[in-house]
Amino acid sequence: MKGRFLLVLFLVFTVFFHKTMQAQEKQKIAGQRVALIDATGREAEIYRPFIELAESVGFIITYKPLDEIMDVSAQGLALEKFDGVFFIFGNEFFAGLRYSLLTHKVLALVKNYAKLSNKIVGFILPALRVNKDMNVVSAFAPIFNTLGIMTPQGRLNFPDLSENQSSDRGVQTGAQKGLQRTLDAFFYALNMFLTSPLEIRPLDYHTTLNMPHAGVSFYNDEIERLLQASHIFLSILPVKQDCSPVVKATLPYGLYWFNPVRNNHVFVTTTTLASFSGISESFHVCPTSFDVRREMHTMMQQMLWELKILVRNKDLLPSHDIFRKNIVLGQCPTLPESIASIGDNKTPVDQENTSGIKKIAWLELPVFDDLEYDLSKTTETEIVQDKRKRAQKQDLLVDYILKSGLDTLWISLTPNIFYSPIARCGSKVAGKKSAQEIQFLAGLSRFTQKLRAQSVKLGIPVPKIMVGFELATNLYAPNLPQLYAIDLYGNTYPDLPAPLDRSFWNNEIKLSLDLFLREWAHDDISHGLKISGVVFDFEMYCRKRTGTFSTTMGFDNYSFQKFLGQKFLNQKLTSQKFVNPGTVSIHDRVAFLMGNKLGQAYFRFLENEAENIGKDMGQFFAQKIPGCIVMCYMPNVLINWVYKGLCKGLNTHASPLHLLTFNAEFRMHEHWFKKNKITANHASVLLLSKVQAPEDFMWVDQTLDNHHGIWLNRFSRFVEDKARDWTAVEQPQIPESFYLPFVEHIASVR
């Protein structure tokens, strides 16, 4: 009996051991480790949906942020241990190619990794809007040349795919001709992919900014011919396109090529797609329809699933016809729950809002201004008629404001345009008001007087009044900032302030608000109405390169020298000759930080300083405006060190912080705010142009179901004359007879 028992035990152990080994081997095969090397940012949340989709098909993703790349040596990063590396590039990286030390380090990482066989070399590139005939790949030559190939210059013609391809490159062997054929095909298809990004394709769905519209399809007869060719080792992903015509028109999402020179796999997509539906989603391409969004996520998941399958099945490569027909796709996994459930809210987000701020209107007040008439061209009768017409519009706008049930008015008062030391419309004579300021105050007085009177008449309370600031409204020559933004790649932004320049925030915000509130205190200006808070408009308009601060900014000499003065730097570092007070070149700054492994410490310093600026402003607001409400407008939810720090600081004195953006989705990313100890409510936009018929009134309901609030862009357009220019996107498209029913619908939604 004992012998039989031991035999049975041995057999059970053997089976268990065998199955365990099989499971481990299966897991080893299933999980391919991929590093995301981010040369442009530090927040994995930007790419969270992409990462979750990749992990759902068996990739194991390790995110490596910008500051880690700065500090850790190539040996420490140990990229060779990964099955694949996806390098994320931004425009600033390529703009700093010639001189940047960090650029050289990243290119060396790419070059060394691209030499390894059986690896996935991924490039996530910025989307460009250029002519399709332009050779874009030549602009990215420094990275594509690391693949052991030469990136072509000049115009890219459709490749000769015939087996007996002739060549003007001299005598070539059959193998050389075959190699040239696959190279020509790769670069031609790649150029087509990069010159027709998602942004310009047919997008037959709504985004928060755009209406459904036509575009330029990627697929054409030439691409179809190319994909039928043999021995080019190329695939456009996803191959399997089981989706609606609307989503199919947005494809493809990536390009795969087997590199016969290095015997490895090349994958290319764009930052737009890698960040699709992330916390900083693009209002140009992200659908407001969550069904369409899920379907696009499904196609992205299919792309990543196919990439994984293609990497493992080299036998499918020689003939693309076989490649397409016999690829072992199997059953792509279902979407991760966090992505599949987007928009499927059992409890509307707005029900979680206890702040009393839910319906916000953004407006301007030019209709209340007094106009100067050219008496040589205008009769007295015409002037009287125009004034009467303007008065009617003023009354109508006030009526709409009150009857819409709005709780908050974000008014672009922009005090800094009058009261900053560099105010564009301010007085040039001490103690005197400029003509523009006099006109502004007169119009503001007329607005508050009519708003108060109509409020009493209708028995409807006046909404909270918020003072809107546009940050860069004064930053034009000759008043461009002396301390301007510089990024770590050496790019300069002369019309953007250095983010940590306290004099900018003090003059443009604190001083300007203080002087404006002194004017508002006069009863003939405010008519007894109270200011409830401020709105930061963080989109800096009419800038030459960018209208927002980026992660890579903050490398100006002022910020760098301030960092050197921090107590945590030891004497050995601060005693180095080149870091003595004075001007240090951007390249020396970056070299110093990288050489001393201080990249992560520097970004922590930047964020802490931004937080201190936010705290300082929040405290000032609380002193000047009791119970001050703080709102931040951003084109999308921006989370780099500048905005994260400012929001954390402002949140110290104003909770919750109210974010107003074009994001169509917020719930998926609430955990990021909780993790970073920011209490925030989110209001999404409704452009008035979306309202084209009574059935479109439901945009209000849908927005409030998925967000803490809604902000209407731009409410004052209700009484402005229609124009066929850029303002059309902000103008209601319903007949005027439906204006009142629409505002009454806004009021009816709880």
Q: How would you describe this structure to a colleague?
A:
The strands form 3 sheets. An 8-stranded parallel β-barrel has the order 8-9-10-13-14-15-16-17. It has a 7-stranded mixed sheet with strand order 2-1-3-4-7-6-5, sandwiched between helices. The chain has a two-stranded antiparallel sheet with strand order 11-12. Helix content is 40%, strand content 13%. The chain contains 27 helices and 17 strands. The radius of gyration is 30 Å and the shape is globular. α2 crosses α12, α18 packs parallel to α23 (599-624) and α23 packs parallel to α24 (641-651). With 750 residues, it is an alpha/beta fold.
Measured between the Cα atoms of the first and last residue, the distance is 77 Å
Radius of gyration from the alpha-carbon trace, in angstroms: 30 Å
Please identify the structural class as seen in this structure: alpha/beta
List the uncertain runs. Answer: 4-29
The mean pLDDT is 89
Question: How much beta, percentage-wise?
Answer: 5-15%
Shape: globular
Number of strands: 17
Number of discrete helical segments: 27
- The largest beta-sheet arranges its strands as 8-9-10-13-14-15-16-17
The biggest beta sheet, please? 8 strands, parallel, barrel
**Percentage of helical residues?**
40-55%
Provide keyphrases for this structure:
750 residues, alpha/beta, globular, seven-stranded mixed sheet
Overview in brief:
This protein has 750 residues and is an alpha/beta fold. The protein is built from 27 helices and 17 strands. Helix 15 (380-403) crosses helix 17 (435-458) and helix 18 packs parallel to helix 23.
